[in-house]
Write a structure and sequence with these properties.
Strands 1, 2, 3, 4, 5, 6, 7, 8, 9, 10, 11 and 12 form a twelve-stranded mixed sheet that branches. The chain is globular, with a radius of gyration of 19 Å. With 294 residues, the protein is α+β, with helices and mostly antiparallel strands. A hairpin with a 6-residue loop joins strand 9 and strand 10. The protein has two domains: 126 residues, Gcn5-related N-acetyltransferase (GNAT) (Aminopeptidase); 142 residues. 25% of the residues lie in helices and 33% in strands.
C-alpha cells in the first residue's frame, strides 16, 4: 500500500524538490537557464524558481508541497485577491499552478493538494476558489466541485501595427505603472490567462531578470495595460484592464515598440459588438475558468 501524501507550506529550501517534480520526463540537459525557462516557466530551473517562489512568499501568497516519505511529489500555488468576478468584487483564491510527479499521479496527491488549498482559502476568508484548467484536467476539478463557469475566452494572436491602429497609448511614466488598487475594480478585458490578480502579479511582481519581464505598462484612455515578453517566442503578451475599446491604441503602441504581434485572451461571451481590432485576430485556442463556492 502506498503511503499517503502529507501537504505543508513550501519554503525556499524546497526549490530543488519542486523543480524535480516539474521537470520529470523533460529533456533539458545542455540547455541554458533561459532555454529551460522557455520550455515551462520558472519551475524548470532552481535559479528561476528561487526568484519566483521568493516573490510569491514576499507577496503573502500560498505555495505548498506534497511529500511522501520525505520526497516532494507535488506542488500547488494559490494567489489570493479581491477582484471582479462576473461584475462583482469577490474575495477569491486562484489555483495558479498545480503539478504532481508522473510516478505519483492517480494516487490522491492532486486531491490532497487541492484540499490543502481549499482549507487555506477558507482560513483567509475567500468566497470561492477558482482555476483555469487544461482540457484534460477539467474532469478532475469538476469532481472536486468546481461547477461554476465564470469565464470563457479565446486565446488570440493580433498583429501590432504602428500605422494600422488609430490613437496612441499614453507613454508610460514611472507613476503610470499601476498598483493593484489602481486596477482591481477594472475588468481584465484582454489577457485573462488566469485570474486578474495572477496576471497582475506576473506583470508587476514576478519579473525574472533578463528572461521574463514587462516591456512597458501605462494608460490607454480609461484603461491600464501591460506588455510582457514571451520567452523563446516573438511578440508579447498583452494585458488590458478596463475597456476593449482601448485595445487599438495599445496595439499601436506595441507596434511603435517594435513588437510584431501580441498574444492575449478575449472574452467569448461578450455581448457588445466586436472591436475592429479583433477582426484581425488569429485564434490559437480556447480556455475557461471554473469556480467552487466555499
Amino acid at each position: 500500500m502506498r503511503a499517503e501524501a502529507e501537504v505543508r507550506r513550501a519554503t525556499l529550501e524546497d526549490v530543488s524538490g519542486v523543480v524535480n517534480v516539474h521537470t520529470a520526463g523533460e529533456e533539458l540537459e545542455g540547455l541554458s537557464v533561459a532555454e529551460r525557462y522557455s520550455r515551462g516557466g520558472p519551475w524548470m530551473s532552481p535559479e528561476t524558481l528561487a526568484v519566483h517562489l521568493n516573490n510569491l512568499l514576499l507577496d503573502d501568497q500560498l505555495a505548498a508541497v506534497a511529500e511522501i516519505d520525505g520526497e516532494i511529489v507535488g506542488e500547488v500555488e494559490v494567489l489570493f485577491s479581491e477582484e471582479l468576478v462576473k461584475g462583482e468584487i469577490r474575495r477569491i483564491g486562484h489555483v495558479d499552478v498545480i503539478e504532481v510527479h508522473p510516478d505519483h499521479r492517480g494516487a490522491g496527491v492532486g486531491r490532497a493538494l487541492m484540499e490543502f488549498a481549499e482549507e487555506a482559502a477558507r482560513e483567509r476568508g475567500a468566497e470561492m476558489l477558482t482555476v483555469q484548467p487544461d482540457e484534460e484536467a477539467e474532469g478532475f476539478y469538476r469532481r472536486l466541485g468546481f461547477g461554476l463557469e465564470i469565464f470563457t475566452g479565446a486565446v488570440v494572436w493580433i498583429p501590432a501595427d504602428a500605422q494600422g491602429h488609430e490613437g496612441a497609448a499614453e507613454k508610460p511614466t514611472p507613476e503610470s505603472r499601476p498598483n493593484w488598487e489602481d486596477v482591481k475594480n477594472l475588468e481584465l478585458v484582454a489577457g485573462r490567462f488566469q485570474s486578474s490578480y495572477s496576471v497582475f502579479f506576473s506583470a508587476f511582481k514576478d519579473d525574472i531578470g533578463g528572461i521574463h519581464y514587462t516591456i512597458e505598462a501605462g494608460r490607454a484612455g480609461r484603461s491600464r495595460y501591460a506588455l510582457r515578453n514571451l520567452p523563446g517566442r516573438s511578440g508579447a503578451a498583452l494585458y488590458l484592464w478596463g475597456r476593449l475599446d482601448d485595445l487599438a491604441p495599445v496595439l499601436r503602441r506595441a507596434g511603435e515598440l517594435g513588437i510584431d504581434r501580441v498574444l492575449t485572451v478575449t472574452p467569448l461571451e461578450e455581448e457588445e459588438p466586436e472591436p475592429a481590432t479583433l477582426r484581425k485576430a488569429e485564434t490559437a485556442g480556447r480556455l475557461e475558468m471554473l469556480a467552487k463556492r466555499l
